[in-house]
Amino acid sequence: MSVELNQFHSVFFEESQEHIDTMERLLMSMSIDNPDPEDLNCIFRAAHSIKGASGIFGFDALGQITHIMENLLDQVRKGQRPISNDLVDQFLGVIDCLRQVLDSYRTQQDIDWPEVERTTSLLEALLGTPAAAEAEAEDEGFGFFDEPAATSEDDDGFGFFDEPVAGQQPADEGWGLFGADEPGKTDPASTPSTTIASKDGAPAKKSGAGNAGESSTIRVDVDKVDSLINLVGELVITQSMLKVLGDDMGGSNTRLSSVLAELERHTREIQESVMSIRMMPVSFVFNRFPRVVRDLARKLDKQVELVLEGEHTELDKGLIEKLVDPLTHLVRNSIDHGIERPDVRRDRGKPETGTITISAAQRGGTIQICIDDDGAGLNRERILGKARENGLSVSDDMSDADVWDLIFQPGFSTAEVVTDVSGRGVGMDVVRRNIQQLGGRVSIASRALQGSTITITLPLTLAIVDGMGVTVGDQTFIIPLVSIIESMRPYPENIEQLAGSALLHVRDQFWPVLPLYQVMDATPRYTSPADGIVVLIETSKRRYGLLVDELVGQQQVVIKSLEQHYKRVPGAAGATIMGDGSVALILDVESLADVVPILEEEIA
Questions:
Q1: C-beta separation of 164 from 156 below 8 A
Q2: For residues 56 and 459, what is the distance between their CA atoms, to the nearest angstrom?
Q3: Among candidates 271, 352, 355, which has minimal Cα distance to 308?
Q4: What are phi and psi of 144, to 5 degrees?
Q5: Exposure of 479 by Cβ count < 10 A (0-12 exposed, 13-18 middle, 19+ buried)?
Q6: How far apart are CA 472 and CA 534, in angstroms?
Q7: pLDDT for 441-484, tens place per residue?
Q8: pTM of the full predicted structure?
Q9: Per-residue pLDDT tens digits for 368-403
Q10: Is 385 left (phi over 0), alpha (psi -120 to 50) or beta?
């Protein structure tokens, strides 16, 4: 019987990527003075697995590199070669080449053979033995067609076609292609990346600690998960429609009311379970930063300690994939512009090693990611000077928050020298735009000579949101529940009119009131806050009150993108289908907050 191996290519690429990530993570966290033997064994097994399976599929470039790399790692784990920073650097360079070659095979592009030969020659020089001689000494059939020698320790057939010998535990259990686990294989999300430090509270899960029994996970194509989520979204809409029909009947049928309540409960449970399928730990993003920090710090001759916190905080997979580039840019900026050189830090009475802390935490229905450094902080005067050079309208009495916000302007950079790291003014505006496209916001706090903190706030998911329905005239809008403090019908004596704008006095605080009908060009029933409802909103920028006609009630809504069919609507983050079949806009309270300063200026 012939076996068509092409059907296993996608699994090979995914698991090879996991093996490469595992090798890089363990190398970055390894103690040079006292390396963990189990970490060395896990790195060896990862290289061994890639070598074996690449030979099966005919991916010669991968096999050529990992074959020599495996021999070097075998010497290290047996204590025949000491581990050193230089050797770790060499291995990290090899891993970069492996990642590039794997991507070429995945995308069916030409292999960069000169780079492969250069990497192979480097490994041969380290090993001191030509690859050809090594090839003669080993069985290059990978144990698939010939019986391995009785003394062979690593040539185990990889579990593809032959059952392992009774009582013998193979080094590689078939790559998971047929449901077997790989002992010692570390899940990318299970081991915290502790290049320097980790404050997640949970100890790192050691490779090899897992059982080699039946796999408890299956691989499912993302498109199938997205399709399932879309169907659940439609189910939520249908359930809302049934609820409206039940309410229209006046609750006369108690059995119907009971069944609808049960349906609502089960629909919410299904929705939460399905949404959890797409949730992934943010460590999938964080795990790449130890390498970024290490490489850039060496390039800039700086000493940087990286601390990771909250790596197990979960976020929607779609958000995680789109977070990589913005976060990478922010981390590089912190190292380049924030952390000072060791001599400068010493003169300022600081430790020579700077610290960058990347943390993630759930705050209600949002995720908050912070990049904090103890560097020099933002230079207010330099930013204002550069803004004037660029023709921006600024003044010396601007608040710090408004000054820091200037660095998000396109083409804005205070770097004195243009390098391959920074100075071209491309990046921060893209960071903000990308974050806003995810329904999030980014803000900066800075302390002179003490450091800066960049905070990114994102929704947990892009699919479903808890919201409060409000009406203005005959139109319905949804306000995300996470942004609402409270709602009220204010007394007339608590309202003041200044320069044509309303101020609401609530518990010794004044809230500027933004009439929603003015922003959305709707015809309201009430134009006075004393007649309508004021919803108090809190955003990352400011607090304000939103004037609406009535409250419809709290409900879960399925977010539908408008921009696939229409141009972007100012003040709207998307749309949803209500229980009665009508369409309601989901409000973007962050962009609405930008209108509030106009009111404040008028009041002043």
A1: yes
A2: 43
A3: 355
A4: -85, -30
A5: buried
A6: 12
A7: 888 999 888 999 999 988 776 667 778 999 999 999 999 887 88
A8: 0.62
A9: 899 999 999 998 888 888 888 888 888 888 888 888
A10: alpha
